[in-house]
Design a protein that fits this description.
Layout lengths: L12 H16 L2 H24 L1 H21 L5 H22 L6
Helix pairs in contact: 1-2, 3-4
Length: 109
């Protein structure tokens, strides 16, 4: 998922910012900290809705898997012929396309 890589404790960067804003609001209860918390929470909700409606996070994941699979083949088969490389690329691109197409039939929420 792009832009939300988890750290070792499992919290993504947007989650960390939201938690920091929440902690700030809990400690101060000020209007400005409440507004910051509302803004960050709203951004997180909007981003999640966008990803659910568009499937963009899954498309990015599938794209990354496709590229990694091709790169792994090239790494483990440095002397592969152009035909072999073309076949592997074609297979992986077709798999990527099929996975993206399957997203069209998945429920949004």
């Amino acid at each position: 998922m792009s832009g939300t890589a988890n750290t070792t404790d499992g919290m993504s960067t947007p989650q960390l910012f939201q938690q920091m804003a929440f902690l700030n609001w809990l400690s101060s209860q000020s209007d400005s900290s409440r507004e910051a918390l509302m803004t960050l929470t709203g951004i997180g909700v909007a981003r999640e809705l966008f990803n659910r409606f568009t499937g963009q996070d899954r498309v990015d994941y599938f794209k990354s898997e496709c590229i990694q699979s091709i790169a792994e083949f090239v790494r483990t088969h440095p002397r592969a012929s152009e035909a072999e490389l073309s076949a592997v690329v074609n297979k992986n691109v077709l798999l990527f396309a099929a996975r993206v197409k399957a997203l069209e039939s998945m429920p949004i929420l």
